[in-house]
Amino acid sequence: MSMVLPEVVGYKFVGKLPDIATATDLVLTVTNELRKKGVVGKFVEFYGEGVSTLSVQDRATISNMAPEYGATMGFFPADENTIDYLASTGRSNTKIEYIKNYLSTQGLMCNYKSQSHPVFTTTMELDLSTVVPSLSGPKRPHDRISLSSMKQDFNSCLSAPVGFKGFGLTPEQIQKKATFSFKGKEYTIGHGAVTIAAITSCTNTSNPSVMLGAGLLAKNAVEHGLEVAPYIKTSLSPGSGVVTEYFTHSGLQEPLNKLGFDLTGYGCMTCIGNSGELAEPLAEAITKEDLVVAGVLSGNRNFEGRIHPLLRANYLASPPLVVAYALAGTVDIDFETTPLGVSKKTGQPVFLRDIWPSKDLIQQTIKSSVLPDMYERVYSNVNDGNKSWNELKVPTGLLYPWDEKSTYIHNPPFFKTMELTVSKRPAITNAYCLLNLGDSITTDHISPAGNINRKSSAARYLEGKGVKPEDFNTYGSRRGNDEVMVRGTFANTRLVNKLAPAVGPQTTYVPTGELMFISDAAEKYQSEGHQLIVLAGSDYGSGSSRDWAAKGPYLQGIKCVIAISFERIHRSNLVGMGIIPLQFQSGQNASTLGLTGKEQFNIELPTDKSLIKTGQTVKVSTNCGKSFETILRFDTPIEVEYWANNGILSYVLRKLLH
Fold first, then answer.
1. How far, in Å, CA of 275 to CA of 138, rounded?
2. 617-622 and 627-632: which strand pairing?
3. Which residue, of 100, 125, 165, 357, is most buried by count of CB atoms within 10 Å of its CB?
C-alpha cells in the first residue's frame, strides 16, 4: 500500500448541548470551524468529556459530514455509548459481549471522561453549551448562520456581490414579487419563498432525536391548525425503514402527512437533486421575475444547482427546522418576532417557540417508540431484496451483452484504445484552456447528478435517440452511459466560468472566439487534435467523491488541472484517470499571474516516468511568453504509475493480464 500518513487533528468537546440545540446544529458548527481550520487530507479525532454526552447517532451525524469539512475521516472511538447503541438496535447479547471484550482487550474502548488522550498533530476545542440553532447556506455546507441571524443574513445576501454569500440584486430587483394561481387559489411570493422543504436522507434522517423532534413539532403545529402552503414541495425520505416503524408506533407519521411530509422512499432524494419538478405555475412565476427562492433540507450538501435548477438559495437545517420553514413559507423571517400563524384552537398567534418540543419529551418518545425489535424486523430480510428486484432478468455468460440502443447503459471507451504495453505519455504542448474557474468548484459543478436540463447538450443527445423530455430523468440515473455523462460534464447551470460572459455551462472556443456549450467545445477541440487544461481556484473538487467528476473531464480530453488547492478525494480521482493535478505556488493563482485562460499552455513534465518524483516542481509556459512554476500533486509513487498507464483502470487491467 502506498499512502501519505495523515496529520491527526484532535477536536475536544467539553460541556453539554443546550436543550434548544440539535445534533444538526452541532454538526453545522463543527463543519464551519473545521473548514476555517483547514483539515483537507487530515484525520479528525473527537475526544473530551463532552463526547460522552452524545449518542452514537449524534456522532455519526458529525462523522458523515467529513467530506463537507474536508477531512479524510471524522473518528469517534468506541465507548459504553457504542455498546448501548448495539443493544438498542437489536444485536444479540452474545455478539455485544464479543465486541466489547474484543475492544477492551485491544485497548480500543475509550473513556471520554479521562484526562489522558492521544498525542495529536494539533488540537481544537468546542464548548457544546455554546452551540445554537443553526442553518448553513445559501450555497455551501460550511457557511453556518445562527437561526437568530437568518433573516438578516438572507437579506444581506440578496444585495451582496455575486458569490458564495451574494446574489448581486439591485434595490429594484429586491422589491420584485410574483403572483400565480395554484389549485384554484392565488399566491404572491417574493425572494426567500420556500419552494422545497425536504427531510431528506442522510445520517440526520436516521437519528431518532431530530426525526422524532420533527414529528413532535408537526404534531403540535397540526393541533393548532397550522398548514403548509400547497405549492411547497415537501417530502420525507428517511435513511432507514426503522424510521417509518417508530413514526408509526409513536403516531407521528399522521401529523407529518397532514403537513405534506409523506414518505417518498428511502435513500438519496432531494439532497442529490431528485426532488422532481416544481408545480408549473410556480416555476413560471420564479422564472418570470427571476426570484431568489429557497430550499430548506436536512441533507449534507447544498451546492449551487444541486437541489433544483430554479432554487438559488438552499439551506441545510435540522428536520424540525425544515418543518418550521415549510410552515413559515419563507426564509425571510425572524421566528422570535414573527408568528407562524394564528391558532385555530386558541385564536392566538403561534410562534415557533410555542410548538418546539422539549428535549425531555423527545427523549421520552425515543424511549417509548424506538425499540430493538424494529431493527431486527426491518433488517432481518435486508439480503432478500424485494419482488421487483428479484424478478429482474439477469444476463448469463462471462461478457455483458451491451445494447447499443440503451440510453442508460453504454459500453464505455476507457479500454477501446488500450495496448498491452505501456507507451510514453505524450507531452502537453500548446494546450488550450477549456475553463477558467474560481474557488470552491465542487464535484456538483463538474458532474451534476440532478435533472437533465432540456436545453443542454445531453438533452440534445437524448432527443436524437428518441427520448422524450419527460423521460430525460437525471444524470445520476444515467451514469452508466458515458455518452450522456461526458455531455453532462461541467453542465451545472450555476457554473461561473471566466471564459463565458454569463453564469451557465458555456465557454469560449478560443481559436475562433465562439461561445458554445462546454461539452461541445471540448468535442471540437478534440476533433482538431488540441489538448486541454483547466485553471481553477482553491478547494477544487470539494463535495461528493463523484467518479464522473474525473471520468467526464478525461473523456473531454482534459490532460491537466492547475489549481490553488485540491480536495483530497477529487485530486486522487483525477490521478486515477491519468489527469495531472498541478498546484500553484503559494500566493499565486491565475489572476496574480495575469492568466486569462485564452493562452496556450506547455506543461514541462518529463514523459519518462523514471524522471518524475512526487511533489516535484513543474514549469508551465504559455504562448504569450509567461511562465510560472507549479507543484506536481502526485503524492505517492504509485500515482506516478497510474499516470504513466493513462489511469488506474488501464493499470489494473495490465496487472491482471500479466
1. 18
2. antiparallel
3. 357
- Measure the CA–CA gap between 509 and 488, rounded to whole angstroms: 18
Contact indicator for 367, 249 with CB cutoff of 8 Å: no
Classify strands 349-350 and 341-342 as parallel, antiparallel or unpaired.
Answer: antiparallel
Helix-strand-coil percent breakdown of the chain, rounded to 5?
35, 20, 45
* 342, three cell numbers: 394564528
Q: What is the pLDDT of residues 180-239, one digit of tens each?
A: 999 999 999 999 999 999 999 776 778 999 999 999 999 999 999 999 999 999 999 998
pLDDT of 378-415, one tens digit each?
A: 988 888 878 888 888 888 888 989 999 999 999 999 99
Whole-angstrom distance between the N-terminal and C-terminal Cα of the chain? Answer: 20
SS3 633: coil
Packing angle of the helix pair 93-105, 80-88 (nearest 10 deg): 160
For residue 127, list its beta bridge partners.
Answer: 14
Q: Residue 612: phi, psi to the nearest 5? A: -100, 130
Q: In what order do the strands lie in the sheet with 8-14?
A: 73-75, 43-47, 8-14, 122-127
Question: Which cell goes with 52?
Answer: 460522552
Size (the chain), residues: 658
Q: Cell match 454569500: residue? A: 165
| Dihedral sign, Cα of residue 247, residue 251, residue 254, residue 256 | negative
**Distance (Å, whole) CA 652 – CA 657:** 9
In DSSP terms, 420 is beta-bridged to none
Cell numbers standing for residue 360: 425531555
Contact criterion met (CB below 8 Å) for 222 and 321: no
Which string of DSSP letters, residue by residue, matches 304-372?
A: TTTS-TTEEEEEE--HHHHHHHHHH-BSS--TTTS-SEE-TTTSSEE-HHHHPPPHHHHHHHHHHH--H
Q: Are strands 311-316 and 293-297 parallel, antiparallel or unpaired?
A: parallel
Is residue 621 classed as helix, strand or coil in its secondary structure?
A: strand
Which helix (H) or strand (E) covers residue 653, if one does? helix 648-657
Q: What is the pLDDT of residue 463?
A: 97
